[in-house]
Amino acid sequence: MNKKVKMIITLCCYAGVICAGILLIPRFFNRASKQEVVTEVVYGSIDLSEPLYPSAPGDDVSDNKYACLDYSNTSQGYISVRYKGGEADSPVAKVNYGDVEYTYSLYSEEILPLTCGNGNYTIKIYKRQQGGKYKAILTKTVSVELENQLLPYLYPSQIVNYSSSSLVVQYSDEMCRGMEGDMEKLKAVYDYIIKNIVYDYPKAANIESGYLPSVDSTYISKSGICFDYSVMMAAMLRTQLVPVKLVMGYLNGTSVFHAWNEVYLEESGWVTVNIYLDMETFCMLDTTLAASQDDEVIARKLSDPEVYMPVFRY
């Protein structure tokens, strides 16, 4: 194959294959039910002039001596949760939508995304009691009607965590300056990641429970695991006003969790993007597979939608 890049874009109902490695998900890490709740979702264009960052204005709050839930910005696709005790209590927040449940460890004031669309979400905050059992200390059900279904994938959150001062955000701004099309930005960010970030096998072998990526640590060290890759891609593109999902799920037939991204292109909607590069570089958009297997094997795996089984999206 010559070095000419060939792009094939295929509409996809659920999962894209802009993938970023393999991770055995740690025990007690953020979890969700394997059962998908499918709702009718209508996506459209969204007119933005600058990146979006969350706030907790206190307009709508559920508060007690243990915790504070700010749900002022549910129309933007997120809530803010603050636990008032210490980390020794191992506090967690559970966000339920139908049969889907997301569980988050609470470390400070956390921004948690609402990624199941419009409807009722029940948020429960727990603290650990003596003996290891958990007790609910705050419960609130909120009705969510998003201003736009793309909004949850344009803000930073606990999982895809960045700010305007993040080094990776500043570099993304510099790299994408002057680019107009979202596909051009996608290609630039993908090329940067696969050419500059190496897979950290020792880190993958010794990952601790509750690990959350730091985009700047990945940017500085130029290394990371799949979680780092996919969070970095999401952060770099969201700040360029490109909606991106961080998706985690199973590789079919295994107990291995995989992290990848779905990207929304205004002209096509949520898409599967297969980018074929030359034999000397990476093929497709699965950096871990690309680093360890040949192009033919990667192409076969990524062309089979049964390989990727999404469980939850951030």
Q: What would you say this structure looks like, in words?
A:
The chain has 314 residues and is of the alpha+beta class. It folds into two domains: 6-29 and 159-313, C8orf32 fold, CATH 3.10.620; 61-147, Immunoglobulins (Immunoglobulin-like), CATH 2.60.40. The protein has helices spanning 167-176, 182-196, 201-205, 215-221, 226-238, 287-292, 295-302; strands spanning 6-11, 18-23, 61-63, 67-70, 78-83, 92-97, 100-105, 110-113, 119-128, 134-144, 198-199, 223-224, 244-251, 257-265, 269-276, 308-313. The strands form four sheets. Strands 1, 2, 13, 14, 15 and 16 form a six-stranded antiparallel β-sheet that branches. The protein has a four-stranded antiparallel β-sheet with strand order 3-4-5-8, with no helix packed on it. A hairpin with a 3-residue loop joins strand 14 (257-265) and strand 15 (269-276). Helix 1 crosses helix 5 (226-238) and helix 2 runs antiparallel to helix 5 (226-238). The chain starts with 5 loop residues before the first strand and ends with a strand.
